[in-house]
Amino acid sequence: MDSKVEKMVRLMFEGTATKAVKAQRAALWDSLSRDEQQQARESLMFISFAKNTGLIADPYNHFNENPRRPDIRTSIKGHDYYFELGEITDQELAKGVSDSMKSKKFSGCAFSQGEPLEKMLRQKCKKTYQTDRAPVDLLLFYWIQSPNEESIDEYLNANSSEVRELIQSSQFERIWIYDSDSGKVLWKRENYKGWRKWLWLLGRIFLILKRKLRRIPRP
User: Full-prediction pTM beyond 0.85?
Assistant: First the structure.
């Protein structure tokens, strides 16, 4: 992380929310460029995810990458590992929040659960990322919008074929859906490709055969 970005992120995670700290956060945030603010958002989300999953030994030890690469580069078991991030939020909701922050007048609005998830999956899975052959995961997250787990499950189940095809055709090793408010992983899928795909298929065949054998009456 850039030194200013890291300072901002550490203040958000480690600073006690006193009036002085809040003022320091606001002043530092305003001093960041637009790109630095974006990096700070990405780092905040990645650290929150890494801390709650225990996936990364030191979540602060990561780098914000340029647009040709995935957003975050870190290290897992001594090897480079990338994470591409994407926020799941309804555009009308995001616009409403932005307008409310500018006007200081807050109001509710209706928003979609399935559409922003569908849009983000399609957008991210169809892209190609420069990683120098290092693995990359996709971390989709909820921040502004609160997730409805039942609606998410309904969308994923109703569109399981398309979701599976998107994942298998993508560059990602794993895809995560994460709720930053609760710190909970709502959904995770491995991309079974190459030898792992065949291993997964063999496992599925074994389970099917096992179920059928159980139905055969014993003499």
Answer: no
